[in-house]
């Protein structure tokens, strides 16, 4: 069974790989299990030095690694470089902080010594997506490897070169063989890996459907999971907001990675007093965006990662129009070569249409007009998703109160949603559960052990 790497800019096959055989999968799991028994006893200062090395390898090779990202999934080159740099940042963050995050915590009990110890679990299987093919992996790998776990990566099938390049980063940094390994396997091979008793936990970033399947299988095996799933993030703009900044940031928040981001702004919920002005300003910036070769520094609109994704997005737009939405701008594919979709603005969007109810994983912005802040929060929460949210207002006291009412894993006030090593990341409802990053994320795949010593 072969796995193809295809350039979404021209749909040319870049390289083909053979999926791993059962024997090779077994060897990878055996290697991971064996090295875990050594790695968990490796002192933090040694783990830290190696993780610092990984940051250095990433930065040294960032141009070449970014080029591979762009060729495999179509991301604009400058965004790909920034992604690799962010991976170096998260490596350094956990190299510097992991020991403190996982140190024993004393408990105030009477007539005994008691403390919490954080012990690693073992092999963690990471099932990762193509849209941020390095960042999604490193935000899992850096904390877990620093914690003493070891990683097996089942990456998305359209980014095999990225998967092997990530493994090479850890090898070049000096990590022992088996601390981080790529498994080039198909989706129908995942269950066997989850079932293996040597694999102790699973983390997935991906679709709602994939999350349900993985949670079901892991649940049958009583294994811990962390799921970061889809999002239909609201971008709420109230009447007192800084409109110029909200428009400019809104376009960026929708178009990052050609709109193929779980935390991209998707539903623009606008207070009616400023809705017309906001939409007009948004359209003016959207129409200036320049599609082209993602390796070209002048390109602002990249191709979507796969043709099937392009077709699915177009169907969602057309279904929304049939249900009453209006296409203010765009609404169609570009050209005959490459997976391009015109950046699109939908107006008159309401619940009951894909533009509101579903995740539009591409360059389409849904505009929703509401009477006031109360209705804005109601519309924001009228979604099965709850990953991130952005709220724009000059009244910070109001923002603090409203932030508590929004049903999402994060609320960014007067800023676009982003993942940051120091801030917990994850969602609620159909956007998943568990958290990555910060001191919270590194503890997700630990045995939080209570120790009681009687005097």
Describe this structure in words.
With 455 residues, this protein is of the alpha/beta class. The protein folds into 2 domains: 2-229 and 431-454, Aldehyde Dehydrogenase, Chain A, domain 1 (3-Layer(aba) Sandwich); 233-420, Aldehyde Dehydrogenase, Chain A, domain 2 (3-Layer(aba) Sandwich), CATH 3.40.309.10. It is built from 15 helices and 22 strands. The strands form 6 sheets. Strands 12-15-16-11-10-18-19 form a 7-stranded mixed β-sheet, with helices on both faces. A 6-stranded mixed β-sheet has the order 7-6-5-8-9-21, sandwiched between helices. Strands 3-4-22 form a 3-stranded antiparallel β-sheet, with no helix packed on it. Helix 5 (135-147) links the parallel strand 5 (123-127) and strand 6 (150-154).
Shape: globular
Number of helices: 15
Proportion of residues in helical segments: 40-55%
CATH homologous superfamily descriptor of the largest domain: Aldehyde Dehydrogenase, Chain A, domain 1
**Strand residue content:** 15-25%
Structural class: alpha/beta
Distance between the termini: 61 Å
Look up the CATH topology of the largest domain.
Aldehyde Dehydrogenase, Chain A, domain 1
Order of strands in the sheet with the most strands?
12-15-16-11-10-18-19
Q: What is the CATH-assigned architecture of the largest domain?
A: 3-Layer(aba) Sandwich
CATH top level of the largest domain?
A: Alpha Beta
Radius of gyration: 23 Å
Characteristic terms for this protein:
six-stranded mixed beta sheet, 2 domains, 41% helix, Aldehyde Dehydrogenase, Chain A, domain 1, alpha/beta, seven-stranded mixed beta sheet, 455 residues, 15 helices
């Amino acid at each position: 069974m072969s796995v193809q790497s295809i350039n979404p800019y021209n749909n040319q096959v870049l390289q083909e790989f053979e999926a791993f055989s059962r024997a090779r999968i077994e060897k990878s799991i055996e290697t991971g299990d064996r090295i875990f028994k050594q790695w968990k006893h490796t002192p933090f200062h040694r783990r830290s030095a190696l993780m610092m090395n990984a940051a250095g390898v990433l930065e040294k090779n960032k141009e070449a690694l970014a080029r591979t990202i762009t060729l495999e999934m179509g991301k604009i080159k400058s965004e790909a470089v920034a992604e690799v740099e962010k991976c170096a940042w998260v490596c350094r963050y956990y190299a510097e902080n992991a020991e403190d995050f996982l140190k024993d915590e004393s408990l105030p009990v009477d007539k005994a010594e008691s403390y919490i110890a954080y012990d690693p679990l073992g092999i963690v299987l990471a099932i990762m997506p193509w849209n941020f093919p390095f960042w999604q992996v490193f935000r899992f790998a850096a904390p877990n490897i620093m914690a003493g776990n070891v990683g097996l990566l089942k990456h998305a099938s359209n980014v095999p070169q990225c998967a092997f390049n990530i493994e090479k980063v850890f090898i070049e940094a000096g990590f022992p063989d088996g601390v981080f390994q790529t498994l080039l396997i198909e989706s129908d091979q995942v269950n066997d890996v989850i079932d293996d008793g040597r694999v102790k936990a699973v983390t997935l970033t991906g679709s709602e459907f994939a999350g349900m399947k993985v949670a079901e299988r892991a649940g049958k095996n009583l294994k811990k999971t962390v799921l970061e799933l889809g999002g239909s993030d609201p971008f709420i703009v109230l009447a007192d907001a800084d409109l110029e900044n909200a428009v400019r940031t809104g376009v960026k928040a929708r178009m990052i990675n050609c709109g193929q981001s779980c935390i991209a702004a998707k539903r623009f919920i606008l207070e009616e007093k400023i809705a017309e002005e906001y939409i007009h300003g948004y359209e003016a910036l959207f129409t200036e965006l320049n599609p082209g070769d993602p390796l070209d520094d002048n390109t602002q609109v990249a191709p979507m990662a796969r043709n099937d994704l392009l077709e699915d997005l177009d169907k969602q737009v057309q279904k929304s129009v049939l249900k009453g939405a209006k296409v203010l701008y765009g609404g169609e594919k570009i050209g005959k070569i490459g997976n391009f979709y015109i950046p699109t603005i939908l107006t008159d969007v309401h619940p009951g249409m894909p533009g509101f109810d579903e995740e539009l994983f591409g360059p389409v912005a849904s505009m929703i007009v509401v009477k006031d802040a109360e209705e804005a929060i109601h519309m924001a929460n009228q979604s099965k998703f709850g990953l991130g949210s952005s709220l724009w207002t000059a009244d910070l006291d109001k923002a603090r109160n409203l932030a508590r009412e929004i049903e999402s894993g994060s609320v960014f006030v007067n800023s676009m949603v982003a993942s940051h090593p120091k801030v917990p990341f994850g969602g609620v409802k159909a956007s998943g559960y568990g958290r990555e990053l910060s001191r919270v994320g590194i503890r997700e795949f630990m045995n939080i052990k209570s120790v009681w010593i009687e005097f």
